[in-house]
């Protein structure tokens, strides 16, 4: 009896193989077309991408290495970072943003033996306190007298208002606007500033003008992280007349670069914007070693993965990263 094959077709082996090959090629093409394409990194002469071995990279943009080989990762530091740090610009146009808490130390309690302080109520940030001792100890070590008197440090808004009002009442509004910052516009709010006077042997007080034996301080303060903030010829930029007694802490590398170029802080903040993280970086040779610095707009920055580095806001529009690359 013959078998009934009605309704069934015999498949030819060569036709089946051909169909399987075509199906595989079609599946591969679909996979290729749907596979995501990695974006190309923008060309840069100073940073190069690094393979990201982390499951969750910090931000899009991942990791890079600077021209000197410093591996960095991009981090979101928050808006508050723009308004804190040793390089924040504060003047009558760019006001200080008072934090809820501000760490300060008493100069009276922390100072070395080489100088005086007005009273127990003069305060400074811890990083500036250490640098102040270093500067004035070095002044004494090279032959300076024990006569420097620190008469001003941190000021809050109310105290600055009283100073401005008193100056205006005694000397006139024009004089006050030239020599006293508006409340909120004073660098003293930062805790990174000191004012000097001279305490004579007979107990009298004299103005500090940075001349005579004290010229050493004004000429060498950058090696300890300080700059003379308000200098003659910069009044149109700073809004304050010449004050040789007013010292601002910005850190050794940046103080050195400001002194070398003859820049006030307003000019220096503009200069730093010319060194973005994806462009040429600023290299600074100073007493503390060799540093590399770059600017990042906004509140995210490329920061080193290790080593000695710091980040400061400029109190305007971005962050400055400073990294030590050699001793």
- Sheet-strand content, in percent, reads 15-25%
Question: Looking at the structure, what is the overall shape?
Answer: globular
What is the overall pLDDT average? 85
Structural class: alpha+beta
Number of helices: 9
CATH architecture grouping of one domain:
2-Layer Sandwich
Which fold name corresponds to the CATH topology of one domain? Phosphorylase Kinase, domain 1
Report on the biggest sheet: 6 strands, mixed
Question: In CATH's first tier, which class of one domain applies?
Answer: Alpha Beta
What is the helix fraction of residues, given as a range? 25-40%
Instruction: Give, in order, the helices and strands.
Output: HEEEEHEEHEHHEEHEHEHHEEEEE
Q: Separation of termini?
A: 100 Å
Query: What is the rounded Rg?
Result: 31 Å
Extract low-pLDDT stretches: 1-60
The number of distinct β-strands equals: 16
How would you characterize this protein structure?
The radius of gyration is 31 Å and the shape is globular. Helix content is 28%, strand content 24%. The chain contains 9 helices and 16 strands. Strands 5, 7, 8, 9, 10 and 11 form a 6-stranded mixed β-sheet that branches. It has a 4-stranded antiparallel β-sheet with strand order 1-2-3-14, with no helix packed on it. By secondary structure, it is α+β, with helices and mostly antiparallel strands.
Task: Describe how the helices and strands are arranged.
Elements: H1 13-34, E1 48-49, E2 63-65, E3 71-76, E4 105-106, H2 107-110, E5 116-117, E6 123-124, H3 126-141, E7 148-152, H4 157-171, H5 173-179, E8 193-199, E9 205-207, H6 215-220, E10 226-230, H7 235-238, E11 243-249, H8 252-261, H9 265-272, E12 282-286, E13 289-297, E14 300-304, E15 309-313, E16 318-326
Parallel strand pairs: 5-7
Antiparallel strand pairs: 1-2, 2-3, 3-14, 4-6, 7-8, 8-9, 8-11, 10-11, 12-13, 13-16, 15-16
Helix pairs in contact: 4-5
